[in-house]
Amino acid sequence: MRHCIKNHRNLHYALYMGQEPVIALDDNGEPLIDEETGEPVQTGQKRNVYTLPVEFNESLSESGETTSVEFGTNTSDYDAIIIAPVNKYPINEESLIWYQSEIEYLDEEHTRVDRNSSDYTVESVKKSVNEVKYVLKRTMK
């Protein structure tokens, strides 16, 4: 299926790589060190790790809907969809997508992205013969 280039938008993606332990910090933002072992103190929590953002241009359709139900509000399963040629991007589930927001980082060296700065998280990847649909869920900010 062909897509009009005028419908393409400037987007960024960061791939989900796994999780890392969260290190406890002191009041100055420095890692706490265990005096016995000399190792950083871990909080017991895990943080998702992502690659650095990569720029790409594709069609993004924001088409989520909200309906009223008996006990509140029911949002649809997705907030947006990106349609791209199959095997063009390595985007996987849990990847982050930036559309209108500025990319923010957790460190001054810009090596760890802040997942909360993204606009969307990839909920599902649906492949067909010629194209792939990335089903997106809006990031709660």
Keywords:
47% strand, six-stranded antiparallel β-barrel, mainly beta, two-stranded antiparallel ribbon, 141 residues
What's this entry about, in short?
The chain has 141 residues and is mainly beta. The chain has strands at 8-14, 16-23, 42-50, 54-62, 66-69, 72-75, 80-85, 96-98, 120-127, 131-138.
Describe this structure in words.
This protein is mainly β and 141 residues long. It has no helices and 10 strands. The chain has strands spanning 8-14, 16-23, 42-50, 54-62, 66-69, 72-75, 80-85, 96-98, 120-127, 131-138. A 6-stranded antiparallel beta barrel has the order 1-4-7-10-9-8. A hairpin with a 2-residue loop joins β5 and β6 (72-75). The protein is elongated.
Produce the secondary structure layout.
Blueprint: E1 8-14, E2 16-23, E3 42-50, E4 54-62, E5 66-69, E6 72-75, E7 80-85, E8 96-98, E9 120-127, E10 131-138
Antiparallel strand pairs: 1-4, 1-8, 2-3, 4-7, 5-6, 7-10, 8-9, 9-10
Runs in which pLDDT lies below 50 for 5 or more consecutive residues are none
Task: Give, in spatial order, the strands making up the sheet with the most strands.
Answer: 1-4-7-10-9-8
Shape label: elongated
The end-to-end span amounts to 34 Å
**Rounded radius of gyration (Å):** 19 Å
